[in-house]
């Protein structure tokens, strides 16, 4: 039962939280987000069905590389979303849908792998079903609470900041994926807070989902986190200056 609860917190809660954060932003409707979840689940299912083929690519790191590429592409989508959100564009719902697609793919594939493995190797008794129900309830409850908190904030920039903090935690996982397939060799850790909150504990999983908590982060992890956190606003600021400067020069003439 505990494994089922942790599975939901680790792999499905990010999708729920992303949807709740996006719904708190202006000009984002629910329907595109549901379409994004559906498309993400469809792609994740396709990846799962071809898992044997993917595991043969890149010396066994095919799936990890695909997830890393999806996260990198999703970071660019977040930049476009933030830029359009700041400009109050009507395209924010489209970028929000693509953002949900990317995060759903990277999280749902692990959920499919582990959940099907649990249900196929263990007897589907009451405790396993109860764990799934509790995990789903926790995901729904936390996402509703987060939506209520962020939606109560009047500043649009603060709302966007909450979204960027959450997404930065997701994008920083690229370094962990590259470490798993030995594309990134990291031995030195900046600190160790596992004595307070361990990564494999319930609170560790929850904090990791909320803002990318790692008990023993590497320099690469923190660097990617900070880049992912600042890039969307930096991109919006640069685009805004590039677009407004020609207009200002034309007005002066």
Number of distinct beta strands = 0
What is the number of helices? 11
Beta content:
under 5%
Summarize the main sheet: none
Helix content: over 70%
- Average pLDDT, rounded to a whole number, is 87
Low-confidence stretches: 247-253
Q: What is the string of SSEs from the N terminus onward?
A: HHHHHHHHHHH
The global form is globular
Q: What's the domain count?
A: 1
Straight-line distance between termini: 70 Å
Oligomer description = single chain
Gyration radius, in Å: 19 Å
Class by helix and strand content?
Answer: mainly alpha
If you had to describe this structure to a student in words, what would you say it looks like?
The chain is mainly α and 253 residues long. The protein has one domain. The chain is built from 11 helices and no strands. The longest helix has 34 residues, at 219-252. The radius of gyration is 19 Å and the shape is globular. The termini are far apart. Residues 247-253 have low confidence and may be disordered.
Question: Topology of this protein?
Answer:
Elements: H1 2-11, H2 13-23, H3 30-49, H4 51-54, H5 62-86, H6 92-121, H7 126-151, H8 156-171, H9 173-180, H10 202-211, H11 219-252
Helix pairs in contact: 1-6, 1-7, 2-6, 2-7, 2-8, 3-6, 5-6, 5-8, 5-9, 5-11, 8-10, 8-11
């Amino acid at each position: 039962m505990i494994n089922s609860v942790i599975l939901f917190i680790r792999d499905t809660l990010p999708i729920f939280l992303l949807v709740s954060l996006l719904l708190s932003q202006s000009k984002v409707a629910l329907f595109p987000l549901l379409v994004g979840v559906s498309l993400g689940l469809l792609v994740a299912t396709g990846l799962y069905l071809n898992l044997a083929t993917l595991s043969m690519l890149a010396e066994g790191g095919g799936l990890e590389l695909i997830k890393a590429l999806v996260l990198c592409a999703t970071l660019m989508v977040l930049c476009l979303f933030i830029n359009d959100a700041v400009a109050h564009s009507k395209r924010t719902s489209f970028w929000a849908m693509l953002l949900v697609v990317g995060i759903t793919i990277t999280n749902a594939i692990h959920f499919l792998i582990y959940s099907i493995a649990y249900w196929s190797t263990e007897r589907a008794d009451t405790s396993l079903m109860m764990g799934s129900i509790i995990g789903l309830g926790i995901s729904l409850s936390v996402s509703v609470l987060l939506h209520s908190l962020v939606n109560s904030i009047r500043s649009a920039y603060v709302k966007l900041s909450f979204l960027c903090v959450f997404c930065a935690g997701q994008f920083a996982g690229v370094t962990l994926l590259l470490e798993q397939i030995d594309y990134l060799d990291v031995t030195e850790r900046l600190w160790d807070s596992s004595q307070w909150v361990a990564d494999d504990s319930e609170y560790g999983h929850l904090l990791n989902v909320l803002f990318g908590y790692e008990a023993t982060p590497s320099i690469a992890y923190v660097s990617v986190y900070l880049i992912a956190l600042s890039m969307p606003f930096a991109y919006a600021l640069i685009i805004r200056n590039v677009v407004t400067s020609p207009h200002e020069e034309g007005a002066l003439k």
